[in-house]
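Hi V.,

Quick status before I head out on leave. The structure for the redesign project is tokenized and pasted below; the design run finished overnight.
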């Protein structure tokens, strides 16, 4: 994210919720910090990859698949993304 401001956590959460809801065909209000995409929405690997690709584009940062698969909840994914944005590799 060279030169671009890093979104604060609230803005990042909004971006993640909107991205996830777009891919899953739900409303952003249906996605919460405690949402478990696998358990609550039975997300598959293709949907997860789509979410990752969209977030990479929106945030202009590389996101390893392990970051997305390693997060049990949406809140954990937001925390991982916030950390990556603050310390890009």
């Amino acid at each position: 994210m060279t030169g671009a401001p890093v979104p604060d956590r609230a803005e990042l959460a909004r971006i993640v919720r909107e991205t996830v809801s777009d891919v899953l065909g739900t409303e952003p209000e249906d996605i919460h910090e405690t949402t478990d995409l696998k358990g609550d929405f039975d997300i598959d690997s293709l949907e997860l990859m789509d979410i990752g690709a969209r977030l990479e584009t929106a945030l202009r940062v590389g996101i390893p698949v392990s970051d997305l698969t390693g997060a049990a909840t949406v809140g954990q994914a937001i925390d991982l993304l916030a950390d990556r944005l603050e310390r890009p590799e």
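Above is the designed sequence. The first helix runs from residue 9 to 24.

G. will cover questions while I'm gone.

Best,
W.
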